[in-house]
Every structure is written in structure tokens, then in C-alpha cells.
Amino acid sequence: MGMNVRTLCLSILYFQEATGYEIRKLSTEGRFSHFVDASFGSIYPALGRLEQDGLVTSREETQIGKPARKIFSITEAGRQTFIEELNQPPSQDVFRSEFLMIGMCAELVDAPRIAAAIETRLGQLDAELEHITSVLEDCEHPGTRWVCEYGLHCISSSKDYLTKNRARLEAIAEQAAAARDAAE
Amino acid sequence: MGMNVRTLCLSILYFQEATGYEIRKLSTEGRFSHFVDASFGSIYPALGRLEQDGLVTSREETQIGKPARKIFSITEAGRQTFIEELNQPPSQDVFRSEFLMIGMCAELVDAPRIAAAIETRLGQLDAELEHITSVLEDCEHPGTRWVCEYGLHCISSSKDYLTKNRARLEAIAEQAAAARDAAE
DNA sequence: TAGGCCATGTAACCGGTTACATGATTAG
DNA sequence: CTAATCATGTAACCGGTTACATGGCCTA
Description:
Number of helices of chain A: 7
Oligomer: homodimer
Helix content of chain A: 55-70%
Radius of gyration of chain A: 22 Å
């Protein structure tokens, strides 16, 4: 399956009607934010194509004092398409980390900068933990809960390791700096 | 910093001279494969631009029975640029998982398909563990070793959790199927 | 009164992939 | 004889981001 904005829209609309604006909120803050962080520039065109292809329909709702909303609903064809995609074996996870690149090149970075990078990374992990916790708090959906708990486990395990082993990484930078000093 | 192919090339050339072909090998199989999985179509243009910008130089080496190789070396300006990039605080990791999407929608998938998806995922994790282990075996570089050990920890922790908690996910699919049957 | 939220959409750009083009050597 | 490995490079395409365009309401 293609973990793209199109599929993201379909996955959200499977469970609820939504506007493009709401889909973006769900994808950046809500229970779908583990997968994609889609922007308006990709969501609106994706919804347009989905409608052309007959996988969703839309109706407009005028509001007083607010812009009109265009509410999208999934069609039966859309449901079928999404379920077919779900039944494909999952492709490999994508993981890209600048922090690991810095870690790998620790010898080239000042010791305090390495410490700062670790601090930044720990902060990011904390923010992710907090976010998942808040999703869990007001979500009864069993699949989502399972995924959140899995995420919580992985991230806190990663945080633990980093906390306990950061000194070894910082030592690499310090030793390299000392070796450079000695060479002068 | 921008974890793009340009930076990948710079990071490799910081430690060794290399051809475009070798950079691709390193990025898909070697010790750099945790970050990017770059293709020729992005590497060769990136090297060209890097040379234009004076961050790398190249010399050609003709070989008997093989095509000529274009060997790239980093310049002093290239070294400086890379170190400056390394000293920037790391941006958030990127993580995209089709498996988690399937898990979140477990209720919509046949129980045997969920089991198959878990099996696929476990296989991917095993492959990653094996790959990192093989990198560790013939690499003495301390930063790389630290990163590999970190990766090993995170992936085996993820694998453990999945092995121990897969039944709960499979149960979601089974219960949903049972509920659908009862509704008929 | 400044900034954030609601709400839709387009256009320019960018960083990548895939496929194509070429061609000799070597191992199975 | 076939497929893989070595080796470079281009062109078409694609899926996304960022910025722009518009505009009213509400809150600090």
C-alpha cells in the first residue's frame, strides 16, 4: 500500500466525515499523526482526485460568520479500495534521523554540541510520549490504543537507552578533542 | 541540517574518497544505510552540484576492462560546511510505518492477514538486526558503533514487544469478524 | 489592534525515484 | 548463454512542501 496523503484521507474518511481542514488537524495533532504530517497543499488536491475517482463524495455546508465547509464522505468503492490496500503486506518502515548522523560523526562535533543534540533529542522523545499519552487519554478505539501503547513502549525504551548511554557518546567527542589538542 | 543526498555525500567523502557508485553502495549496504537509501539518479547530480560549489573535487581513473571511475574528494570548504551542518541541532526524526496503519485499522482486516502483516514486520526487524550486526562486525569506528548499538537496542526492544503483544492485536481482528458474523 | 483560528484552494518549487541509454567483464 | 557487477549519467515523472491569495471572527 502507499502510505501517502491519498491513503491517509481514505483512512480518516473510513471512520468519519471530515473537511480538508479537519483532516489536516487529525494528521498533525490527532490519532493519525503517527503516520503522516500532511499539509493543505497535498490534502486538498488529494481529496479532489479522490472525488474524481468516485472514492469520496462531498457536500457544502454554509455557516454564519465562518467560511463554507466542504464535507467529504467515503463511498462504498472508497471503503473497498481502502480495505484492499490494508490487506497488502506492509512495506518497510521509513526511518530517517539527523540525530543518528550527528552521533555517527561525534568525533567531529564539540562536546557541548553533542550534549545539546542529545538534550534536543530527549526533548523530542518527551514531546512524542506526551502526545501519544494525550491521544490515549481520550480514545477508546482498540486498534489505535494498541498502536499508541506500542509507540509508548518503543519511545520510552529508546529514551532510557539514550539516557543511560549518552556518556559514552559524549566521551567520543571529548577524546577526539583531546587528541586534536595533543596533535597541535 | 538537511538529511538529504547532498549531505550524505559530504559525510561519506569526509572520511574517504569515493565514486558515485561506491557512495550508493555505502548508502544502501554500508555503515551509512541507517539514514538514506539514495539512488544513482540523486547521487550523480548531487556530486555534480557539490563540485560546482567547490565542496568536492574529482579526478578520473581509467581502468583496463572496466569503465573509467570518477573519484571524488572533499575540499577544505567541504569539510567546514559539513561540520557546520553537524553542529546544528538535529531536526525531528522521520518515522513512517505502514504496519502501524494496518494495526490501527486491525478491525477491518482479516485475522490471518493481520498475522501475516505481523510476520512480515518481524521479518523486516530481523533483517535490520542482522544488517546492523554485520556492520558492527567489521567496523571499529566508535561513533558508528555507538549508533549501531543504539539501533540494535531499539529494534530488538520493538521486536520483543511485538512478539509478546501480537495476540492482543490479532484478537481485535477476530472480535471484529465475530461481531460482523453475529450481525448477519 | 495584533495574532490566531477557521476555511478553501492554487502555483512555484524541490528533492527524490524510476526508467532509460550504454557497454565491457566475469561468474555460474 | 544469462545474469550480475562495475560504472556513469540523463530525462520524465511524482509526491510532497512552502508560499501565496482571500477573508471574517474571536481573543488577549
